[in-house]
TrEMBL record:
PANTHER family hit by this protein: GERMIN-LIKE PROTEIN SUBFAMILY 3 MEMBER 3
Record-given protein name: Cupin type-1 domain-containing protein
Domain (Cupin type-1): residue spans on this chain: 33-188
Entries under InterPro entries matching the protein: Cupin_1 (IPR006045), RmlC-like_jellyroll (IPR014710), RmlC_Cupin_sf (IPR011051)
Organism of provenance: Lasiosphaeria hispida
Pfam families: Cupin_1
Domain of life of the native organism: Eukaryota
Amino acid sequence: MILNSITRLALLTEAYSIINQFKLLPNDTQFIFNFNQYQTISGKGGKLIIANQKTFPALVGTRLGMVIGRLGYKSYGINTFHIHPQSAKLQLVIQGHLKTKMIPENSILNNNGTRRIIKNDIRPFQMTPFYQGSIYMQFNPNYTDTIFVASFANKDFGAGQVLDETFTIIDDIVTASFGQIIAREDINTIHKAIPASVTLSIEKCLEIYSIQRRAQ
């Protein structure tokens, strides 16, 4: 019987034993994932190739996942503020340089009572953890590509872009959350302007479009 990818994934997920799972993967090549492929998870500042149970069904039952990312193939890429709701992450830089920021949770504070933001410069073959549910971002500060590998402890780690999710809620809760400085009628306009998960830095956008930075 020839199975399409959706049917195979459903059967693997529902299989009552590992023996049945292996029967659904009869070809040895089904245990290889090719990161040299195009996926639609990309933006103006880079691209992500994701191996999870959907894109790599052999991961069903393993509690594992992985991403290879490239930031800055059009220079100064940003992986915007996001969370992974189902997993912590280990991120290893292979080439280039990443600046990272992570906000763990409400109760983790500096000595002066302000919210703690963990900031780091990650160089080649250095690694940093990002905790499950924490908000974080990565930025390539160089005019060269940065390539990283991210491993997850869940085959379906999920992702949520913080600003996109926030401004999807078009009602007074959002305006109240921003202290009434954003008008309700502007929320949809802001939401439409929010970029994909990987975008260009402000400085690069100003350079490309020949825009002068507004005086502070």
